């Protein structure tokens, strides 16, 4: 019954649906600006140089970052939560924010604490509108043919339904992976970042109002630079088979599923506060608990639309996975883009230029 109710909720969203991820929209609905291709070479060399100089991923100097988030918390999260004797990530995990400047006009309504926790079943309908707006392009309503309008509404509904089903599957798979009675390995951890704002209780015990302001996911995925995570959950054994035998894995040196970051999203009204770093640190910590040697991700290679995300990942020390697809014709798959771009991890995924980083 709950699933049926959610299906009716997404009808009102009137949005489109396909595979959702952090860095790629459906090429059929979004025009790819190929004009940025001629700038990739200089752009990658300029921005990527930050991660090639031996720069530390995070600095522990100072008590807090410029975004009120203590550096010690970022270090603790990224280290695997101290690699304590945890069978599951220690969620919910609170982060006390440093107080805002006393002269700040909004100091009374700013959050005092962040909470990192798993996405739960009850959260899905609340975050669904934001996720659909970010990961899916709105299909415009046609004005000519009535039949086209109906087809567009159906398409929009199916897009929202795909995201709804995909998120629900991820919650179920995460619970299964951490269940004592189940032998399945942990997989598909979708985490939430929650702001807590203290309420004015007139001297009574402090209570907080909460709002989810970001999500991110870590899962096991085949080391495929030519494709990102599918919208639906695949069994782990299938991922293993794809990793070993699929031709698409020729571009990397791994032959088993690897930790893969996807669906990193901070609400637009909360960007610029360092929340992306918190989410990434938590995912890296989970990856260490899983035994991952590294984690991988795709990011938009477009000069404009992917600039902020690339800056985040390069600032954290991520580097491109070079194209090593030496098979069949004994040539690198993307040599036509230039040697420097192939070495920076530039690939075409469904016709969209993306960087594959680790």
Describe what is shown at a glance.
The protein has helices spanning 2-11, 40-48, 71-78, 124-135, 146-177, 236-245, 275-290, 307-315, 339-343; strands at residues 93-96, 113-118, 189-198, 208-221, 258-266, 295-300, 346-349, 352-357. With 358 residues, the chain is of the alpha+beta class.
Topology readout:
Elements: H1 2-11, H2 40-48, H3 71-78, E1 93-96, E2 113-118, H4 124-135, H5 146-177, E3 189-198, E4 208-221, H6 236-245, E5 258-266, H7 275-290, E6 295-300, H8 307-315, H9 339-343, E7 346-349, E8 352-357
Parallel strand pairs: 5-6
Antiparallel strand pairs: 1-2, 2-3, 3-4, 4-5, 6-8, 7-8
Helix pairs in contact: 1-5, 3-7, 4-5
- What strand line-up does the widest sheet have? 1-2-3-4-5-6-8-7
Low-confidence stretches: 1-19, 22-62, 326-332
Helix percent reads 25-40%
Can you summarize the main beta sheet? 8 strands, mixed
The value of Rg in angstroms is 21 Å
> Rough shape?
globular
List keywords for this structure.
8-stranded mixed sheet; 358 residues; 8 strands; alpha+beta; disordered N terminus
Tell me what you see in this structure.
Helix 1 runs antiparallel to helix 5, helix 3 (71-78) runs parallel beside helix 7 and helix 4 crosses helix 5 (146-177). The two termini are 41 Å apart. This protein has an 8-stranded mixed sheet with strand order 1-2-3-4-5-6-8-7, with helices on both faces. Helices cover 31% and strands 16% of the residues. With 358 residues, it is of the alpha+beta class. It has 9 helices and 8 strands.
């Amino acid at each position: 019954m709950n699933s049926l109710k959610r299906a009716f909720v997404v009808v009102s969203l009137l949005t489109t649906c396909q595979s959702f991820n952090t860095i790629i929209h459906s090429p059929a609905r979004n025009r790819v600006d190929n004009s940025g291709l001629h700038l990739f070479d200089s752009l990658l060399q300029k921005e990527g140089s930050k991660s090639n100089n031996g720069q530390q991923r995070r600095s522990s100097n100072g008590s807090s970052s410029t975004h009120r988030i203590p550096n010690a918390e970022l270090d603790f999260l990224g280290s695997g939560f101290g690699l304590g004797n945890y069978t599951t990530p220690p969620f919910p995990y609170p982060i006390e924010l440093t107080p805002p400047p006393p002269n700040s006009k909004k100091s009374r309504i700013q959050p005092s604490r962040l909470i990192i926790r798993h996405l739960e079943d009850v959260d899905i309908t609340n975050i669904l509108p934001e996720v659909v707006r970010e990961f899916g392009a709105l299909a415009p309503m046609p004005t000519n043919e009535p039949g086209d309008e109906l087809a567009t509404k159906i398409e929009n509904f199916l897009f929202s339904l795909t995201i709804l089903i995909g998120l629900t599957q991820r919650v179920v798979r995460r619970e299964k992976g951490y269940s004592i009675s189940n032998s399945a390995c942990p997989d598909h951890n979708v985490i939430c970042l929650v702001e807590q704002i203290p309420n004015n209780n007139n001297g009574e015990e402090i209570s907080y109002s909460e709002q989810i302001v970001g999500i991110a996911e870590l899962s096991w995925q085949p080391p495929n630079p030519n494709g990102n995570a599918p919208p639906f959950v695949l069994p782990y054994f299938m991922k293993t088979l794809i990793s070993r035998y699929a031709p698409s894995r020729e571009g990397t040196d791994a032959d088993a599923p690897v930790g893969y970051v996807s669906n990193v999203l901070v609400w637009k009204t909360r960007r610029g506060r360092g929340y992306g770093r918190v989410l990434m640190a938590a995912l890296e910590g989970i990856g260490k608990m899983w035994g991952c040697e590294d984690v991988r991700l795709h990011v938009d290679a477009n000069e404009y639309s992917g600039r902020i995300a690339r800056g985040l990942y390069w600032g954290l020390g991520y580097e491109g996975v070079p194209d090593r697809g030496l098979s069949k014709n004994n040539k690198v798959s993307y040599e036509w883009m230039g040697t420097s771009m192939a070495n920076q991890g530039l690939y075409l995924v469904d016709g969209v230029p993306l960087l594959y980083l680790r």
